[in-house]
Design goal:
Length: 73
């Protein structure tokens, strides 16, 4: 079994276990499996990204105070 196939099967098993344990509603599991099916394991369609998986195009930069920066170095 190829590495990508193993990863996909592992993700499916993880999602199934979450549903069985009650930690993931079936609707969310179905959506996750649907998104998983849109991924391209061979990387042949890199530009075809599912709209829900696209990165956010606009974001606000985070500003930190000088005192925060000094204490978190």
């Amino acid at each position: 079994m190829a590495s990508n196939e193993q990863s996909t099967e592992g993700i499916k098993a993880f999602i199934s276990n979450k549903v069985i344990s009650g930690n993931l509603p079936p609707e969310e599991a179905e959506a996750a499996l649907e998104l998983l099916g849109t991924l391209d394991p061979d990387n042949t369609a890199v530009d075809d990204v599912h709209p829900e998986l696209e990165p956010v195009s606009e974001f606000e930069p985070v500003t930190m105070s000088p005192s925060w920066i000094r204490t978190h170095r």
